[in-house]
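Hi all, posting the design record for the shared folder.

TITLE: backbone redesign
STEP: 1 of 1
STRUCTURE INPUT:
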């Protein structure tokens, strides 16, 4: 289950650091 604030934090990281977001998204998927 994903927490709303966690998703917001990941989205912010996506916006700033695309490569880190990519790997983090793979782990959380």
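Okay, here is what came back for every position:
SEQUENCE:
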């Amino acid at each position: 289950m994903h927490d709303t604030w966690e998703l917001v934090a990941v989205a912010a990281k996506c916006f700033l650091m695309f490569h880190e977001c990519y790997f983090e998204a793979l782990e959380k998927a």
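COMMENT: The chain has a mean pLDDT of 78.
Let me know if anyone wants the other runs.
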